[in-house]
């Protein structure tokens, strides 16, 4: 099927998920929406995140998308169940695939999850892991400063090292053998995280698993793009695009040239986007 795949996130972090989707599905066209006017999601309530997620999916729906990926871990944790049934296309989040991978990977049954405050407080990862492995022991830690660090492009240096080390203390003390990067921004800090972790810990990036998941869904539902035509990616944001263009490549691993701004009241002025 020629229709595009829709992807949304609270901002530019979801580009780490898009990176894996483009790697996994090089022939698919994608519409990416970053809700930069309302970022961060990671501090907000379930009710608010659900409303934002509905609006973002409605925006993507105007492009006639065939399926959607919620790249934001906070929105996947808090809103996926509520929004899934409201649309006529399949919707994949990052939490279930990440949790499945962690449950399969652990040997000692001890899994760490790091994410935003809202993700951690929702217990979504914990519940999804326990569904797959009821005997697992899960420790979660919110790392709220990781998002602004990544968005400042601050991925090196002593301050970053100290913050990473401090946030990971509860996870390391719990003797986990598997750590889930439960936030879009954390892959950007992966090197710093690996420096602090004891050797031998399996780090799960749910973006990789979600990309495989959406590929499987497209296949199972016969929604794959036909032939080998080159994919096309369009980027939309809800606020001024310059930061997205400047920092996006750190998250996506390739340059971004054109970003379109969707303006107006929430519910989005869809006339701009057609
Ligand atoms: N995209 C969010 C997440 O993955 C991080 C940024 C935010 O708080 O909006 O949870």
CATH class placement of the largest domain: Alpha Beta
Number of helices: 12
How many distinct folded domains?
Answer: 2
The distinct ligands, each listed once, are: D-glutamic acid
Name the helicity range: 40-55%
| Biggest sheet: strand arrangement | 4-3-1-2-9-10
Report the sheet-strand fraction.
15-25%
The CATH topology of the largest domain: Rossmann fold
Low-confidence stretches: 270-274
Oligomeric organization of the protein chains: single chain
Gap from first CA to last CA: 19 Å
What's the story with the biggest beta sheet?
6 strands, parallel
Run of helices and strands: EHEHEHHEHEHHEHHEHEHEHE
Overall 3D form: globular
**Class from secondary-structure proportions:** alpha/beta
Rounded to the nearest angstrom, the radius of gyration is: 18 Å
User: Which CATH-level-2 architecture of the largest domain?
Assistant: 3-Layer(aba) Sandwich
State the total count of DSSP E strands. Answer: 10
If you average the pLDDT, what whole number results? 94
List the helices and strands and how they pair.
Elements: E1 5-9, H1 15-24, E2 30-34, H2 46-61, E3 67-70, H3 73-78, H4 80-84, E4 91-92, H5 95-105, E5 110-115, H6 117-122, H7 124-132, E6 137-142, H8 146-151, H9 158-173, E7 178-182, H10 190-196, E8 202-204, H11 206-220, E9 233-237, H12 242-252, E10 259-261
Helix pairs in contact: 1-11, 1-12, 5-7, 5-11
The chain binds D-glutamic acid (DGL).
The site of D-glutamic acid has 17 residues, from helix 3.
């Amino acid at each position: 099927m020629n229709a595009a795949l829709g992807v949304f996130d609270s901002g530019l972090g979801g580009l780490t998920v898009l990176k894996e989707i483009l790697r996994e599905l090089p022939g698919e066209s994608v519409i990416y929406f970053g809700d930069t006017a309302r970022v961060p999601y990671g501090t907000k309530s379930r009710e608010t995140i659900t409303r934002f997620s509905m609006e973002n999916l409605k925006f993507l729906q105007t492009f006639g998308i065939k399926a959607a990926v919620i790249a934001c871990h906070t929105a996947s944790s808090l809103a996926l169940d509520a929004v899934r049934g409201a649309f006529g296309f399949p919707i994949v989040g990052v939490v279930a695939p990440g949790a499945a991978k962690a449950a399969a990977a652990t040997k000692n049954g001890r899994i760490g999850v790091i994410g935003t405050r809202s993700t951690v407080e929702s217990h979504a990862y914990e519940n999804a892991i326990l569904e797959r492995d009821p005997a697992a022991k899960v420790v979660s830690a919110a790392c709220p400063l990781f998002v602004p660090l990544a968005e400042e492009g601050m991925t090196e240096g002593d301050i970053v090292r100290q913050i990473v080390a401090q946030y990971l203390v509860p996870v390391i003390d719990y003797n986990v053998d598997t750590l889930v990067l439960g936030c879009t921004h954390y892959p950007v800090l992966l090197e710093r995280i690996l420096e602090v972790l004891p050797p031998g810990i399996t780090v799960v990036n749910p973006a990789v698993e979600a990309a495989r998941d959406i590929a499987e869904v497209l296949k199972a539902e016969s929604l794959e793009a036909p032939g080998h035509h080159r994919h096309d990616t369009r980027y939309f944001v809800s606020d001024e695009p310059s930061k997205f263009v400047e920092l996006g490549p750190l998250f996506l691993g390739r340059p971004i040239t054109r970003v379109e701004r969707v303006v107006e009241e929430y519910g989005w002025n869809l006339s701009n986007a057609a």
